[in-house]
Design goal:
Length: about 180
């Protein structure tokens, strides 16, 4: 399902078509997908417009913004696009068409780029700061350990004065031994 042929729909007012898809697509733009892209796309010729609608679901692999581990993020998105029938007539007649990015990125003379439509819809659903878990503890700014997996000693050193005393003593001791 890269592009969907619109010629039958364009030919007749009121014409429509429905197409289900279920495809393994490894990458969608910059996004890595870890489950098939499933859904349905519908196209209707409403006399003045060609209206595309549908649903898609898949799983995107994201990196946690706190601890940087990859995790699976399920996405459901709505597909939506429409285009004036005049656009196709003008394209066919070789007339200039408006340079409207939203239209030209998905429609050409005879088809709609469903994969591009899916890519745009899925990207809109992705979080700006993904978290692998809501309570992700992130990485220690001191030593870089993943605090979800291990409690590092940086925090203890900072909060417990007895430890810092001991560290100073140990360092002194070590220096004396070295000289
Ligand atoms: Zn995380
Ligand atoms: Zn640390």
């Amino acid at each position: 399902m890269r592009r969907l042929d619109l010629r039958d729909v364009l030919r007749e007012a009121g014409a429509s078509l429905v197409e289900a898809f279920d495809e393994e697509i490894a990458e969608l733009g910059d996004a890595i997908l870890t489950s098939p892209v499933r859904g349905e796309v519908r196209v209707v010729n409403s006399r003045r417009y060609v209206v595309v609608s549908g649903e898609v679901e898949t799983t995107v692999q994201l990196l946690c913004s706190r601890c940087l581990r990859p995790f699976d993020y399920p996405v459901r998105a709505q597909l939506e696009a429409q285009c004036e029938l005049r656009y196709f007539e003008d394209l066919l007649a070789g007339l200039p068409v408006p340079e409207d990015e939203e239209t030209t990125s998905v429609f050409d003379l005879t088809s709609v780029d469903v994969e591009e439509l899916i890519r745009q819809a899925v990207l809109l659903e992705l979080p700006i700061q993904p978290l692998h878990a809501l309570d992700c503890k992130g990485l220690c700014p001191g030593c870089g350990s993943d605090l979800n997996d291990e409690a590092c000693v940086c925090a203890e050193r900072a909060v417990d004065p007895r430890w810092s005393q001991l560290t100073v003593l140990l360092e002194h001791h070590q220096k004396r031994e070295e000289t």
